[in-house]
Protein backbone atom coordinates (compact mmCIF):
# COMPACT_ATOMS: atom_id res chain seq x y z
CA UNK A 1 0.00 0.00 0.00
CA UNK A 2 2.88 2.40 0.72
CA UNK A 3 6.65 2.77 0.92
CA UNK A 4 8.88 4.35 3.57
CA UNK A 5 12.39 5.51 2.72
CA UNK A 6 14.82 4.24 5.37
CA UNK A 7 18.15 5.06 3.70
CA UNK A 8 20.07 5.41 0.47
CA UNK A 9 22.45 3.30 -1.56
CA UNK A 10 24.35 5.26 -4.20
CA UNK A 11 21.63 7.43 -5.78
CA UNK A 12 18.67 5.18 -5.01
CA UNK A 13 16.33 5.25 -2.03
CA UNK A 14 16.10 2.16 0.16
CA UNK A 15 12.38 1.71 0.65
CA UNK A 16 10.40 -0.55 2.95
CA UNK A 17 7.02 -1.66 1.65
CA UNK A 18 4.28 -1.69 4.28
CA UNK A 19 0.53 -2.15 4.59
CA UNK A 20 -1.53 -0.33 7.21
CA UNK A 21 -5.17 -1.31 7.62
CA UNK A 22 -7.99 -0.93 10.12
CA UNK A 23 -8.50 1.15 13.23
CA UNK A 24 -8.16 0.62 16.95
CA UNK A 25 -5.05 -0.38 18.86
CA UNK A 26 -2.14 -1.06 16.49
CA UNK A 27 -0.52 -4.45 15.98
CA UNK A 28 2.73 -4.66 14.00
CA UNK A 29 3.49 -8.06 12.43
CA UNK A 30 7.10 -8.83 11.42
CA UNK A 31 7.55 -11.79 9.08
CA UNK A 32 10.07 -14.60 8.98
CA UNK A 33 12.76 -15.67 6.53
CA UNK A 34 12.50 -16.11 3.55
CA UNK A 35 8.91 -14.85 3.17
CA UNK A 36 7.19 -11.45 3.28
CA UNK A 37 4.48 -9.61 5.16
CA UNK A 38 1.90 -11.48 3.08
CA UNK A 39 2.67 -14.61 5.14
CA UNK A 40 0.52 -13.12 7.92
CA UNK A 41 -2.72 -13.30 5.93
CA UNK A 42 -4.58 -15.54 8.39
CA UNK A 43 -3.64 -13.29 11.32
CA UNK A 44 -4.41 -10.07 9.42
CA UNK A 45 -7.97 -11.23 8.74
CA UNK A 46 -8.56 -12.26 12.36
CA UNK A 47 -7.09 -9.07 13.83
CA UNK A 48 -9.05 -6.79 11.52
CA UNK A 49 -12.25 -8.66 12.34
CA UNK A 50 -11.51 -8.13 16.05
CA UNK A 51 -11.18 -4.37 15.55
CA UNK A 52 -7.42 -3.84 15.52
CA UNK A 53 -5.25 -1.69 13.29
CA UNK A 54 -2.87 -4.08 11.54
CA UNK A 55 0.50 -3.11 10.06
CA UNK A 56 2.78 -5.46 8.13
CA UNK A 57 5.96 -4.73 6.22
CA UNK A 58 8.47 -6.54 4.05
CA UNK A 59 12.00 -6.78 5.41
CA UNK A 60 14.63 -5.16 3.19
CA UNK A 61 15.62 -7.60 0.46
CA UNK A 62 12.28 -9.44 0.62
CA UNK A 63 8.81 -9.04 -0.83
CA UNK A 64 8.19 -5.64 -2.38
CA UNK A 65 10.86 -3.77 -0.40
CA UNK A 66 14.12 -2.51 -1.89
CA UNK A 67 17.02 -4.91 -2.30
CA UNK A 68 20.12 -3.04 -1.13
CA UNK A 69 23.48 -4.78 -0.97
CA UNK A 70 23.91 -4.12 2.77
CA UNK A 71 21.96 -3.83 5.99
CA UNK A 72 21.08 -7.45 6.74
CA UNK A 73 22.31 -7.25 10.32
CA UNK A 74 19.89 -6.97 13.22
CA UNK A 75 20.89 -3.46 14.24
CA UNK A 76 19.99 -2.15 10.78
CA UNK A 77 16.87 -4.25 10.40
CA UNK A 78 15.57 -3.23 13.83
CA UNK A 79 16.34 0.36 12.93
CA UNK A 80 14.14 -0.07 9.86
CA UNK A 81 11.41 -1.26 12.23
CA UNK A 82 11.95 1.76 14.46
CA UNK A 83 11.73 4.17 11.52
CA UNK A 84 8.41 2.67 10.46
CA UNK A 85 7.00 2.86 13.99
CA UNK A 86 8.09 6.49 14.29
CA UNK A 87 6.82 7.45 10.83
CA UNK A 88 3.38 6.01 11.57
CA UNK A 89 3.48 7.43 15.12
CA UNK A 90 2.37 4.10 16.57
CA UNK A 91 1.58 4.11 20.28
CA UNK A 92 0.24 1.50 22.72
CA UNK A 93 1.62 -0.92 20.15
CA UNK A 94 1.74 -4.70 20.21
CA UNK A 95 4.77 -5.88 18.25
CA UNK A 96 4.75 -9.47 16.95
CA UNK A 97 7.77 -11.23 15.48
CA UNK A 98 7.68 -14.56 13.69
CA UNK A 99 10.88 -16.65 13.42
CA UNK A 100 13.63 -14.27 12.26
CA UNK A 101 11.19 -11.42 13.02
CA UNK A 102 11.50 -12.27 16.70
CA UNK A 103 15.03 -10.94 16.49
CA UNK A 104 13.76 -7.58 15.30
CA UNK A 105 11.30 -7.51 18.20
CA UNK A 106 14.06 -8.28 20.71
CA UNK A 107 16.57 -5.82 19.26
CA UNK A 108 13.98 -3.06 18.84
CA UNK A 109 12.88 -3.39 22.47
CA UNK A 110 16.46 -3.68 23.66
CA UNK A 111 17.83 -0.72 21.74
CA UNK A 112 15.25 1.49 20.01
CA UNK A 113 11.94 1.53 21.89
CA UNK A 114 10.90 4.89 23.34
CA UNK A 115 7.87 3.62 25.23
CA UNK A 116 5.66 3.05 22.20
CA UNK A 117 5.30 -0.72 22.74
CA UNK A 118 2.86 -2.02 25.35
CA UNK A 119 2.99 -5.75 24.51
CA UNK A 120 5.35 -8.12 22.72
CA UNK A 121 4.84 -11.48 21.04
CA UNK A 122 7.50 -13.99 19.96
CA UNK A 123 6.12 -16.60 17.57
CA UNK A 124 8.27 -19.54 16.44
CA UNK A 125 11.03 -17.11 17.31
CA UNK A 126 14.79 -17.20 16.90
CA UNK A 127 15.32 -15.71 20.38
CA UNK A 128 17.12 -15.92 22.76
CA UNK A 129 20.38 -17.08 21.08
CA UNK A 130 21.17 -19.75 18.50
CA UNK A 131 24.98 -19.78 18.48
CA UNK A 132 26.40 -22.52 20.66
CA UNK A 133 29.39 -21.40 22.70
CA UNK A 134 30.74 -21.53 26.25
CA UNK A 135 28.06 -19.20 27.58
CA UNK A 136 25.27 -20.75 25.51
CA UNK A 137 25.64 -24.54 25.60
CA UNK A 138 22.01 -25.03 24.51
CA UNK A 139 22.65 -23.36 21.16
CA UNK A 140 23.40 -24.75 17.72
CA UNK A 141 26.90 -25.38 16.40
CA UNK A 142 27.84 -22.59 13.95
CA UNK A 143 28.87 -25.22 11.40
CA UNK A 144 25.17 -25.91 10.83
CA UNK A 145 24.70 -22.39 9.51
CA UNK A 146 27.74 -22.66 7.28
CA UNK A 147 26.22 -25.79 5.75
CA UNK A 148 22.96 -23.90 5.15
CA UNK A 149 24.86 -21.15 3.38
CA UNK A 150 26.72 -23.68 1.25
CA UNK A 151 23.46 -25.32 0.20
CA UNK A 152 21.96 -21.95 -0.68
CA UNK A 153 25.04 -21.04 -2.71
CA UNK A 154 24.99 -24.38 -4.53
CA UNK A 155 21.29 -24.28 -5.51
CA UNK A 156 19.05 -22.03 -3.49
CA UNK A 157 15.88 -23.25 -5.21
CA UNK A 158 16.54 -26.88 -4.32
CA UNK A 159 17.40 -25.76 -0.78
CA UNK A 160 14.15 -23.79 -0.49
CA UNK A 161 12.04 -26.74 -1.62
CA UNK A 162 13.38 -28.90 1.22
CA UNK A 163 13.43 -26.06 3.73
CA UNK A 164 9.76 -25.20 3.22
CA UNK A 165 8.65 -28.80 3.72
CA UNK A 166 10.43 -28.74 7.08
CA UNK A 167 9.08 -25.22 7.70
CA UNK A 168 5.54 -26.60 7.57
CA UNK A 169 6.48 -30.13 8.76
CA UNK A 170 5.04 -31.49 5.54
CA UNK A 171 5.68 -35.18 6.11
CA UNK A 172 3.21 -36.64 3.64
CA UNK A 173 2.05 -35.44 0.24
CA UNK A 174 -1.57 -34.43 0.53
CA UNK A 175 -1.41 -33.78 4.28
CA UNK A 176 -4.30 -31.83 5.74
CA UNK A 177 -2.47 -29.06 7.62
CA UNK A 178 -1.24 -27.29 4.50
CA UNK A 179 -1.71 -27.92 0.80
CA UNK A 180 1.07 -28.42 -1.70
CA UNK A 181 -0.27 -25.34 -3.49
CA UNK A 182 0.23 -23.20 -0.37
CA UNK A 183 3.82 -24.44 -0.09
CA UNK A 184 4.34 -23.60 -3.78
CA UNK A 185 3.06 -20.09 -3.06
CA UNK A 186 5.58 -19.70 -0.25
CA UNK A 187 8.28 -21.00 -2.58
CA UNK A 188 7.42 -18.31 -5.11
CA UNK A 189 7.75 -15.55 -2.50
CA UNK A 190 11.03 -16.99 -1.20
CA UNK A 191 12.47 -17.44 -4.69
CA UNK A 192 11.79 -13.78 -5.42
CA UNK A 193 13.92 -12.58 -2.51
CA UNK A 194 17.26 -10.86 -3.06
CA UNK A 195 19.86 -13.63 -3.20
CA UNK A 196 22.75 -11.83 -1.39
CA UNK A 197 20.34 -10.58 1.26
CA UNK A 198 18.84 -14.02 1.73
CA UNK A 199 22.33 -15.40 2.23
CA UNK A 200 23.46 -12.59 4.56
CA UNK A 201 20.48 -13.16 6.84
CA UNK A 202 21.86 -16.60 7.73
CA UNK A 203 24.82 -14.87 9.39
CA UNK A 204 22.39 -12.64 11.29
CA UNK A 205 20.76 -15.71 12.83
CA UNK A 206 23.82 -16.09 15.06
CA UNK A 207 23.01 -12.84 16.85
CA UNK A 208 22.69 -13.04 20.65
CA UNK A 209 19.46 -11.47 21.95
CA UNK A 210 19.78 -12.37 25.61
CA UNK A 211 20.65 -8.85 26.76
CA UNK A 212 17.87 -7.40 24.59
CA UNK A 213 15.35 -9.74 26.19
CA UNK A 214 16.44 -8.64 29.65
CA UNK A 215 15.34 -5.10 28.76
CA UNK A 216 11.75 -6.16 28.10
CA UNK A 217 9.38 -4.99 30.83
CA UNK A 218 6.05 -5.21 28.95
CA UNK A 219 3.65 -8.19 28.97
CA UNK A 220 5.11 -10.83 26.66
CA UNK A 221 3.64 -13.85 24.91
CA UNK A 222 5.62 -16.72 23.40
CA UNK A 223 3.83 -18.98 20.90
CA UNK A 224 5.77 -22.02 19.70
CA UNK A 225 4.96 -25.40 18.21
CA UNK A 226 6.30 -28.60 19.72
CA UNK A 227 6.96 -29.98 16.21
CA UNK A 228 9.12 -27.08 15.05
CA UNK A 229 11.86 -28.59 12.87
CA UNK A 230 13.49 -25.25 12.07
CA UNK A 231 13.78 -23.69 15.54
CA UNK A 232 13.09 -26.47 18.06
CA UNK A 233 11.14 -25.24 21.06
CA UNK A 234 13.63 -26.48 23.67
CA UNK A 235 16.37 -24.25 22.23
CA UNK A 236 14.17 -21.21 21.66
CA UNK A 237 10.62 -20.66 22.92
CA UNK A 238 10.99 -22.48 26.23
CA UNK A 239 14.10 -20.44 27.07
CA UNK A 240 12.63 -16.94 26.65
CA UNK A 241 11.29 -16.87 30.21
CA UNK A 242 14.87 -17.23 31.51
CA UNK A 243 15.38 -13.64 30.35
CA UNK A 244 11.81 -12.28 30.33
CA UNK A 245 10.33 -13.56 33.62
CA UNK A 246 6.85 -12.25 32.80
CA UNK A 247 6.70 -14.12 29.49
CA UNK A 248 3.79 -16.52 29.03
CA UNK A 249 4.45 -19.60 26.88
CA UNK A 250 1.70 -21.13 24.75
CA UNK A 251 2.73 -24.44 23.20
CA UNK A 252 0.83 -25.42 20.06
CA UNK A 253 0.58 -29.21 20.07
CA UNK A 254 1.81 -30.61 16.78
CA UNK A 255 2.63 -27.12 15.58
CA UNK A 256 5.44 -26.83 13.02
CA UNK A 257 7.57 -23.76 12.43
CA UNK A 258 5.00 -22.24 10.09
CA UNK A 259 2.18 -22.68 12.58
CA UNK A 260 0.63 -19.30 11.78
CA UNK A 261 -0.71 -21.02 8.65
CA UNK A 262 -1.09 -24.68 9.65
CA UNK A 263 -2.52 -23.98 13.11
CA UNK A 264 -3.97 -20.52 12.49
CA UNK A 265 -7.06 -21.10 14.65
CA UNK A 266 -5.02 -21.96 17.74
CA UNK A 267 -2.50 -19.20 17.07
CA UNK A 268 -5.16 -16.56 16.53
CA UNK A 269 -7.04 -17.60 19.66
CA UNK A 270 -3.89 -17.25 21.78
CA UNK A 271 -2.96 -13.94 20.15
CA UNK A 272 -6.40 -12.37 20.52
CA UNK A 273 -6.70 -13.50 24.13
CA UNK A 274 -3.35 -11.90 24.90
CA UNK A 275 -4.34 -8.66 23.19
CA UNK A 276 -7.45 -8.39 25.36
List the SSEs and their pairings.
Blueprint: E1 2-9, E2 12-21, E3 26-30, H1 41-49, E4 53-57, H2 74-87, E5 93-98, H3 101-112, E6 117-123, H4 142-167, H5 180-191, H6 195-204, H7 210-214, E7 220-225, E8 247-252, H8 259-262, H9 264-275
Parallel strand pairs: 3-4, 3-5, 5-6, 6-7, 7-8
Antiparallel strand pairs: 1-2, 2-4
Helix pairs in contact: 1-9, 2-3, 4-5, 4-6
Give an overview of the whole structure.
- This protein is an alpha/beta fold.
- The protein is 38% helix and 19% strand.
- The chain has one domain (2-275): Alpha/Beta hydrolase fold, catalytic domain (Rossmann fold).
- The mean pLDDT is 95.
Compact description:
With 276 residues, this protein is α/β, with parallel strands linked by helices. 38% of the residues lie in helices and 19% in strands.
- Structure summary, number of beta strands: 8
The stretches of 5 or more residues where confidence is low (pLDDT under 50) are none
General shape: globular
Which structural class do you get from the secondary structure elements?
alpha/beta
Enumerate the strands of the largest sheet in spatial order, edge to edge or round the barrel: 1-2-4-3-5-6-7-8
**What is the tally of helical segments?**
9
Output the keywords.
single chain; Epox_hydrolase-like; alpha/beta; Rossmann fold; hydrolase activity; eight-stranded mixed beta sheet; 9 helices; 276 residues
Amino acid sequence: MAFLTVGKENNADIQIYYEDRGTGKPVLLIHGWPLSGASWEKQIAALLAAGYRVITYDRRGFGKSSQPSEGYDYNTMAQDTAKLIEALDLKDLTIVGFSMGGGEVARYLGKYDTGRVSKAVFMSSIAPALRKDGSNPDGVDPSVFEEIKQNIEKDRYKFLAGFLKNFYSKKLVGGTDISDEAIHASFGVAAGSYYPGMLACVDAWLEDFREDLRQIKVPTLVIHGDDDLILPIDSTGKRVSEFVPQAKLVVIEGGPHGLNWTHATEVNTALLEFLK
